[in-house]
Every structure is written in C-alpha cells, then in structure tokens.
Amino acid sequence: MDEKLIQTWTVTPELTRPLIYRVSVAENGDIIGYASVNNATPEEEKLIPLPQLLYRIPGDARPTEPVADFAVRFNPDGRLEINPWLENGN
Fold it and tell me: Would 18 be classed as within a structural domain?
C-alpha cells in the first residue's frame, strides 16, 4: 500500500488542511476500504488517490484473508504519513 500511495499522491494547492483516513488493507496490499477520520468533504476527497486505488470486492463478499488498518494522513505540504491504526482513535 505504501508504494501505491506514494506513487499516486500529488499535492495540490486546493488541499488546505491535513486529511486523515483509516485505511483497510488486504494481505496482498490491496486497499479494500477507507473512512475519513476528520470529515473530509467530497471535494477534498477528490484531491487524494484513495478512490482510484480502492479494490472493490465483488458483491456482498467479505474478505477472507487478514486485514490490517492504517492511519493515513495527506498533508498540504506533500508529506504522506502512514502508521498502524490504533483502536483508541489513533
């Protein structure tokens, strides 16, 4: 997941605040879900690569392999921070 995000993340002047997401990743590195932690607007979400990188699981299927959650922070200065998700809200 790290490499996919690093390769596709491009900072834009429209991003004026950090956007923080809880990102669920399959064992093979596919991003299978994400949720905004700090209430990103639809316009802000268009500025980040998560929608394009999301692997859509067919139908109502649930992942059968282990899933890991990460806190991903997209910063206006271009920095990308990726850390393990901590259940206490990170």
Answer: yes
Residue 36 lies in a domain: yes
pLDDT at residue 70 greater than cutoff 90? yes
Give the global pTM. 0.87
49: which DSSP letter? S
Asked if residue 89 is part of any domain, the answer here is: no
Quick one: pLDDT at residue 78? Answer: 92
Burial class (CB in 10 A: 0-12, 13-18, 19+), 11: middle
Both structure tokens of 80: 């990308």
Domain range for 43 is 2-84
Number of domains in the chain: 1
Please name the residue that has the structure tokens 């997401």.
21
